[in-house]
Amino acid sequence: MNWEEIFIALPKLLDGALLTLELVFIACLVGFVIAIPVALMRSSQNWWLRNVPLVYTFFFRGTPLLVQLFLFYYGAAQFEAVRESIFWVVLKEAYWCALIVFALNTGAYTAEIFRGAIRAVPHGEVEAGIAIGMKKHTLYRRVVLPRAIRMALPAYGNEIILMLKSSALAYTITLLDLTGVTRTIIARNYLAIEMYFTAGVIYLLMTFIFIQVWMRVEKRLLRFQ
């Protein structure tokens, strides 16, 4: 194990790790915002409203993340209408394509997690809200959604961890995230074992820190469950 080369490469790897964290944080934040209305629509009693977002969730849950990245970054550029549209300013940039795909992907999975949690809210709590005269939107805002989100925390934490690991695919569209930087360094020093080992340790540390923080969040929010 060439420790000297590892220490030389470490600052660049940490820079790549920062980009990884940035992508995952923003994607999960946007995905969470997307997931709430989608989950509510998927939980609706109205057949049309329930099935409108089904195409979205089916596509992003049913196709590999790598394929989605390639479709957005390489595929969109094949259409002249896209290149001449106002969206080309965003879609021509690898960073924004990765961010959009990651957000839509985690939003689809998170929506299904929340949908299951909404359906698992005890019926007695819903009936109690109705009994005291709550309107439907108030009932969802003050009873159903807070309870569902707390119930979904363990599964949602797993989704964020999966998103962190899946973000390694960002290098396939030229982004220099942690994996991208690792491959670039290997192309120069040919020390694949040392560089991948170091990158793996950094991913493990990021995951470990997140798990510790998330466990405290769960403990705090679930203490009255």
TrEMBL record:
It is a multi-pass membrane protein. The keyword Signal does not apply. It comes from Candidatus Terasakiella magnetica. One of its GO terms (cellular component) is ATP-binding cassette (ABC) transporter complex. PROSITE patterns: ABC_TM1. The keyword Transmembrane helix applies. GO terms for biological process: amino acid transport. GO terms for molecular function: transmembrane transporter activity. Keywords: Cell inner membrane, Cell membrane, Membrane, Transmembrane, Transmembrane helix, Transport. It holds the Pfam family BPD_transp_1. SUPFAM superfamilies: MetI-like (SSF161098). Residues 17-214 form the ABC transmembrane type-1 domain. It is found in: Cell inner membrane; Cell membrane. Coiled coil: none annotated. Belongs to the binding-protein-dependent transport system permease family. HisMQ subfamily. This is Histidine/lysine/arginine/ornithine transporter subunit membrane component of ABC superfamily. The chain crosses the membrane at residues 20-41, 53-74, 86-109, 168-187, 193-215. InterPro entries: AA_ABC_transptr_permease_3TM (IPR010065), ArtM/GltK/GlnP/TcyL/YhdX-like (IPR043429), MetI-like (IPR000515), MetI-like_sf (IPR035906).
